[in-house]
Amino acid sequence: MPHYYLYVPSPSEQGTLNLRDLYVAGMSAFSGSSFSDPDSLPEVCILCFERLDKTSPSSSYRQLRCSHIFHLPCIDDWLCNRDASCPLCRERFYHLRGPRIMYSQSSLPITRPGTTVGLRRGQPETHYVRSMIESVKKWAKKKRREERTADTEEEVHSES
After folding, report:
1. 10 Å Cβ neighbour count for 53?
2. Percent of the chain having pLDDT more than 90?
3. Shortest CA distance to 32 belongs to which of 11, 61, 7, 8?
4. Strands 69-71 and 60-63: what pairing?
5. Widest CA span of the chain, in angstroms?
């Protein structure tokens, strides 16, 4: 039986972001024609070495918290598939990673009702983490209900 659990990455643990993390972090995305100061755009995206078109509304960019700017698809690929850091100045964005729902075929440690995997006693919980935990609990309850319904339907079909 598959197991789902909430994984909260450490703020210092290396890894990647996902698109939701980028959105929540407020790393702005814009088109060349909508950028307030087009003269401050670099000439070239250092990831693909192509020119940044400062006037084209179809060209999209992302500005990181360190103020470096890249083509949107280039930097999203970097942050989501390689490393959550700026490829120019190496500023790290690991702390921006939110909790993730993980999947495992093996069984997980059994916890007593009312306990939460991943949070240590005495560790401050933020509202965000608490709401994520509640969302995951509701999601897991729904999944268990769906699995029970599917099992019941299989039994009915096998008896026929």
Report:
1. 16
2. 17
3. 61
4. antiparallel
5. 73
Query: Could you give the CA distance from residue 105 to residue 2 in angstroms, rounded to a whole number?
Result: 5
Half-sphere exposure of 91 (CA within 13 A, CB side): 8
pLDDT for residue 12: 75
Residue 3 contacts by C-beta under 8 Å, 6 or more apart in sequence? Answer: 103, 104, 105, 106, 107, 108
Q: 79-116 burial string, b = 16+ CB within 10 Å, else e?
A: beeebbbbbeeeeebbebbebbeeeeeeeeeeeeeeee
Domain ranges of the chain: 16-95
% of the chain at pLDDT higher than 70? 72
3-state helix, strand, coil in the chain (%, to 5): 35, 15, 50
What is residue 91's predicted lDDT score, i.e. its pLDDT? 92
- 16-95, CATH topology level: Herpes Virus-1 (3.30.40)
Please tell me the pTM assigned to this model.
0.57
97-121 tens-digit pLDDT: 887 777 776 655 544 444 445 444 4
